[in-house]
Design brief:
heterodimer; A: 224 residues; alpha/beta; 6-stranded mixed beta sheet; 4-stranded antiparallel beta sheet; 8 helices; 26% strand; B: 409 residues; alpha+beta; 2 domains; 14 helices; 55% helix
Chain lengths: 224, 409
């Protein structure tokens, strides 16, 4: 028996109503991603990759169709429930790192932990996570602007992992990094996947896609 | 650190990041709080001063002849003057001896009743002429109602007392001679035997610019024996004012309206209520500065939200609820409000003191609770206005779409 799909899309359509006419960003997309899978989504600009990622990442809901994340129907969720789902089940890694500039590296990682647990980490989990990604205590005390791109992305990965999510969503995670650092980051993600984490990655980069078990190519809002 | 605490930290750090801008916005609140608190304190001090000056006569009722409407009718008894004819055959501006006795019996043991003769007359002192109120009082009563700053109370008919302001203005000292009246109609020379302490604004007797004669000396010159301009009642207990007043009016005005009873505490109420209205009005004008400050805070908060759209997107994508975003910006405006209000309150303390001293000439009541209460009050208003100004920007921040926000540069 194959593992249950952790992400399931059935005829998902996302239409953006614009004054010049409706834009169909996703057109009746059906796909499923199983737990522990490493999936790369590829496609030209404007093909709907990011829209698909936003749906899977519960930042957006379909205009029509059904989307299930970790067995839960997303389409009917309130904003509060969607936010709670993001907090508990999904970790984000962005191309531009997206760390909160006013917080130190440590605080950035601790932030989702505080949101979920309502109190700070007394177990050393946050510091351990940072250390495992090569960010020592001294670096942890720096603000994002004082860190290199690679260091920032490591902090972002630590932040994505801090609440132990089932799914890691990565939007061009190596896009702003040099190739050596990019390879290091991909090795980290690959390692996380080997340890059972489901990873969905959007990329233009073929070498990044090679880390994936499966590549979904999107064209004009549909998998091709 | 707890969840709320990191949200608060973010608000504080953003203020620190834009310190100058935040300080300038808070400055408006500082000025507004100072303006409101200083004006409020001035009004409170004015009220307290008036109360202080009038409190000594708070236990006094004055009874004067009422030449108005027919009695027994109470309110709505017809317009004044309509029934004048009925009073024409009487001495309609005086209280008679029999009325005085009736008043005394109505008051009973509730207080001391004394008669007051008064007129306004010319006088000359040395080479200087002037006008003054002349009172004729029972010499036995004088020591009980007036304090002297110099000299002694008049004995018999010989001496007179003069008010402090009159003595100062006309250089009257003990032993000075005053001629009352004018030469055409005859004069009456008296000798100053005592100076009455300054009493300020007064309800029963205004002695500061007055000459006080023993009753017999007064009536021998001005006549009007057993006809009094006024009867005063010094109450033993201020709480019996209403009952005594009712008792007098019931006794004398039952059939025909003869007297009017005035209660000093009512007058005090009316004065303090007028000062209260003025203070509210002046505070409202001062409040305009807070309104300007509110616009400034609103502007700063809108800028803060616009600058942090991307950050809001990040926070939302990480699982931050809308309410937390709302709180973050409300904390920011509240911190600006509390800081501005605290500085404003400290400033109000100094500036309020200066305003009170310079406008009222005394800060005797500055530290009383009725005056100092305007500090927390103005702080509360300042902080509340700040939070209100932050409401809309915070709401806008909270309702941002996470995807749109993440796309922001």
């Amino acid at each position: 028996m194959s593992p249950a799909p952790i992400i399931e899309l059935e005829e998902v359509t996302r239409i953006y109503p614009l004054p010049a006419g409706d834009v169909v960003a996703l057109d009746h997309v059906s796909l499923s991603i199983e737990e522990g899978e490493f999936v790369a989504i590829m496609g030209p600009s404007g093909s709907g990759k990011t829209t698909l990622l936003n749906q899977i990442g519960c930042l957006d809901v379909p205009t029509s169709g059904r989307l299930r994340i970790a067995g839960r129907e997303v389409g009917q969720m309130t904003d509060h429930e969607l936010t709670e789902l993001r907090l508990r089940k999904i970790g984000y890694i962005f191309q531009r790192f997206n760390l909160i500039p006013l917080l130190t590296a440590y605080e950035n990682v601790e932030y989702p932990y505080l949101m979920m647990h309502r109190q700070n980490d007394a177990t050393g989990w946050v510091a351990g996570l940072l250390a495992s990604l090569g960010i020592d205590e001294a670096l942890s005390a720096h603000r994002p602007a004082e860190l290199s791109g690679g260091q920032q992305q490591r902090v972002a990965i630590a932040r994505a992992l801090v609440n132990d999510p089932s799914i890691l969503i990565c939007d061009e995670p190596t896009g702003n990094l040099d190739s050596r650092t990019g390879t290091q980051i991909m090795e980290i993600l690959s390692d996380l996947n080997r340890r059972g984490r489901t990873i969905v990655i959007v990329t233009h980069d073929q070498t990044v896609a090679e880390y994936a078990d499966r590549v979904i190519t999107i064209r004009d809002g549909r998998p091709s | 650190m707890r969840r709320g605490s990191i949200i608060f930290q973010l608000a504080v750090r953003n203020i620190r990041l834009n310190l100058l801008r935040s300080l300038l916005a808070a400055l408006g609140i500082v000025i507004g709080v100072i303006a409101i608190a200083a004006m409020g304190m001035m009004g409170a001090n004015m009220t307290l001063m008036v109360k202080d000056q009038m409190s000594e006569m708070g236990n006094v009722l004055t009874v004067t002849h009422d030449a108005g409407t027919d009695g027994g009718g109470g309110p709505g008894g017809g317009p004044p003057g309509m029934s004048r004819a009925s009073n024409d055959d009487e001495d309609d501006s005086y209280i008679t001896e029999s009325q005085f006795r009736a008043i005394r019996s109505a008051v009973g043991s509730n207080g001391t009743v004394y008669t007051v003769h008064s007129t306004n007359d010319r006088f000359s002192a040395g080479t200087r002429d002037g006008r003054a109120t002349v009172y004729g009082l029972d010499p036995d009563v004088i020591p009980r109602i007036l304090n002297l700053s110099d000299g002694a109370y008049p004995k018999g008919e010989s001496g007179a007392l003069v008010g402090a302001s009159l003595a100062e203005r006309f250089n009257l000292t003990l032993g000075s001679r005053l001629s009352l009246g004018d030469e055409d109609e005859g004069t009456h020379t008296i000798r100053v035997v005592g100076i009455v302490e300054e009493r300020g604004m007064s309800f029963d007797l205004s002695t500061d610019m007055a000459v006080i004669l023993p009753e017999k000396a007064y009536t021998s010159f001005y006549g009007n024996e057993e006809q009094y301009n006024q009867v005063n009642v010094i109450l033993r207990d201020i709480d019996s004012a209403d009952a005594t007043s009712t008792s007098i009016t019931e006794r004398l005005n039952a059939k025909k309206r003869q007297v009017r009873v005035s209660d000093a505490s009512r007058m005090l109420e009316s004065i303090t209520s007028t000062i209260g209205t003025m203070t509210t009005f002046v505070m409202a004008i001062a409040g305009i500065s807070l309104l300007v400050a509110a616009v400034s805070i609103f502007n700063v908060m809108m800028m803060s939200v616009t600058e942090r759209v991307r950050e809001i997107g990040i926070m939302r994508s990480l699982g931050t609820q809308k309410t937390e975003i709302l709180k973050m910006f409300l904390y920011e405006s509240a911190v600006l409000g509390v800081t501005g209000s605290l500085i404003g309150a400290a400033g109000s303390f100094g500036i309020g003191y200066l305003v009170v001293v310079s406008l009222l000439g005394s800060a005797d009541h500055f530290f009383e609770p009725q005056s100092l209460v305007y500090l927390p009050l103005a702080m509360l208003v300042g902080t509340a206005i700040c939070i209100l100004s932050g409401l809309y920007p915070s709401w806008r921040a909270a309702k941002l779409d996470p995807i749109e926000a993440l796309r922001a540069e």
